[in-house]
Amino acid sequence: MRLHGALRVLGAVLLVLLTGHQQCVSATYTPPEAIENNGTMFAACKMRPSSTLPEGLLKVSGQVLFRQVEHEELAILLRINGFPKEGDQGPRAVHIHQYGDLSQGCDSTGGHYNPKEVNHPNHPGDFGNFVPHQGKISAMITSQATLFGGESVIGRAVVIHEKVDDLGLGGDAGSLLHGNAGRRLGCCIIGISSPKLWNMQHKQFTRRLKRN
Q: Catalytic positions, please?
């Protein structure tokens, strides 16, 4: 009986040590794509209209691109079109949502990705509001989201909403969950990419900035 009890204790200790080792490996793991690119990860998603949108709502499309050097901030380039060129040019909210599941359009992407269980707008993928110009959103931002480690956003979804994000100031429960940003116009799943797409789109974005 004593031997049996000792073996159970030893097994429990080994399990704790193994679990801690696995967590440590997960936290420090560097994907091979980052190693190939001198510690830099690239990701992309191709924005499409939600398949569950009712008739008459905007049909948005475009790309959201990501670049991150390990242990540095994540850079994001948004290139989204399909907004009115005249009339409603109001800001539109963009967030990262929990699931890369488009089986029910953008509605199946879940709520905001919120690994630390904090209130909106402090989720890592709360990108804020973007005003379209000539029917397009073209913007470069940085984010507290990451492409590395256990909280990587790879495989999750980017969603663009119908309305402005109230940034948690709306005074109700919805404001602290999602900013009351309204229906989901379009979405895409974040996937690992090569540097080519980022380099091309970033060069075009920089040229436009210089012209303007």
A: 95, 97, 112, 120, 123, 126, 161, 184
